[in-house]
Amino acid sequence: MPKGEILIHACCATCAGYVLHKTAQEGYIPVIYYYNPNIFPLAEYKLRRDELKNYAQKQKIRFIEENYNPEEWSDFIKGLESEPERGLRCNKCFELRLSKTADFALKNNIKIFTTTLSISPHKNSKIILSTGTKIAEERDLIFLAEDFKKQDGFKKTMEIAKIEGFYRQNYCGCFYSLR
């Protein structure tokens, strides 16, 4: 019996492949939420979006794109521009994207959400999961706090990416991660 919809914040097709597969296997109906105002430049944003959108269509998964608003992101991380990768700027970035995901879930009566961000070995999953849990509690939602890279999740998502021929970016996404 299906568990209902789960709103999945996704940053790219490569990270989403295994998460979409795993949540569907667990009985959820995945819905992709693409909100990534941090991604720079616009051409990179569109490349990641279009690839994820095409994969969603192929898998018959609903795809929702939030407005691209890099100024909103810049304002949110203001003062943290010189932070290193995996530092406080990244934590604020997670907070913004997960808050927006939770707000969308709440407005659309989706009771559970998660993110593909924890699949990356380059991101601090403990911070991502605690941030998502806190945001969910504030909104009376459920956050599926799963470190998707565990149990070979990262390896599995890379296998899906290879089979699908996904573009693999060489930086997280923001202007500062290009340094």
General description of the model:
- The protein is α/β, with parallel strands linked by helices and 179 residues long.
- The protein has a single domain (4-178), classed as Rossmann fold.
- It has helices at 13-25, 42-59, 70-76, 88-107, 125-138, 153-164, and strands at residues 4-9, 28-34, 62-65, 112-115, 142-143.
- A five-stranded parallel beta sheet has the order 3-2-1-4-5, sandwiched between helices.
- The relative contact order is 0.21.
- The model has no long low-confidence stretch (mean pLDDT 95).
So what's the CATH class? Alpha Beta
Q: What is the name of the CATH architecture? A: 3-Layer(aba) Sandwich
Q: What separation lies between the terminal Cα atoms?
A: 47 Å
Structural shape: globular
Q: What structural category arises from helix and sheet content? A: alpha/beta
- What level of helicity do the residues show? 40-55%
Question: How are the strands of the largest sheet arranged?
Answer: 3-2-1-4-5
Unreliable sequence segments: none
How does the major sheet shape up? Answer: 5 strands, parallel
How many separate structural domains? 1
Strand content: 5-15%
Order of helices and strands: EHEHEHHEHEH
What assembly state would you assign to the polypeptide chains in this entry?
A: single chain
What name goes with the CATH superfamily? HUPs
With helices defined by DSSP (H or I, 4 residues minimum), what is the helix count? 6
- Rounded to an integer in angstroms, the radius of gyration calculated over CA atoms is 15 Å
The beta-strand count equals 5
